[in-house]
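Entry for the shared binder. Reason: the reviewer on the internal report wants the predicted structure included alongside the sequence.
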Amino acid sequence: MADRWAGWEIRLSTSRGVPYFFNTEAKKSTWEPPEDMTEEEIKQLPGAKEYLKGEGVQGGVHAGQVRASHLLVKHRDSRRPSSWKESVITRSKEDAIELLKEFQAEIDGDPQKFAEVASQESHCSSHSHGGDLGWFGRGQMQKPFEDATFALEVGKISDIISTESGVHLILRTG
């Protein structure tokens, strides 16, 4: 393997239960393989045999997984009715849905606009990444969220989805 990939290895995320790429020298982690790394080079990384389920990234790291971004609006009956945006959330679920409908109209199916609105308006900490939640598999998200995400085509945005966390718009990105 080329020296340019020295320090890279594959580890298993304890929070998500999925593999990720880690550079031990730079102390940098990423869900995506380093740019320009081939499938063959990925298979040679330390940890590849232990954590990749199949052949490289397509059949391994992300097999059976989806990637999505979301825009979350919490309401007073949410599991945790507070966020980075509002310390105490008092709106009703109906008001949260109306607010999300306004965002939905503003986004109008545009993934770039989705990221912009999510970064400013989402009550999830993923707002700092345009709503990106990264890759996840079955059993890692609340069931209504998971079902909606797996049912979406890549590049499509869901209708309003309700979970214990609040109400969401979901953009499937992978």
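Summary line for the report: The two ends are 28 Å apart (CA to CA).
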